[in-house]
Design a protein that fits this description.
Number of strands: 3
Helix content: 40-55%
Shape: globular
Distance between the termini: 35 Å
């Protein structure tokens, strides 16, 4: 099931990651024919999904992924 808004997905994904950072993974899938980007985040118990055709939301998704990567990298160094 897909989340209706990006803000809702982002908050839920952050909470999911903070609950158990070592178990969470995410994936991005772009379908060129449909001009559709899908974002999925899971910890094997909960699965959060979001899809969009709106190009302006790509910046929000990019910012979220960059923040997630930065947080993961800082956890690795600790």
């Amino acid at each position: 099931m897909y989340t209706n808004s990006w803000d809702e997905f982002e908050k839920a994904a952050q909470n999911l990651y903070l609950q158990n950072p070592m178990k969470v993974r995410y994936s991005l899938k772009y379908t060129h024919q449909k001009n559709l980007l899908k974002v999925k985040m899971t910890d094997n118990y909960r699965c959060l999904q979001y899809k969009t055709e709106i190009q302006q939301e790509l910046k929000k998704i990019e910012k979220f992924v960059n923040n997630l990567m930065r947080h993961m990298a800082s956890k690795e160094e600790s």
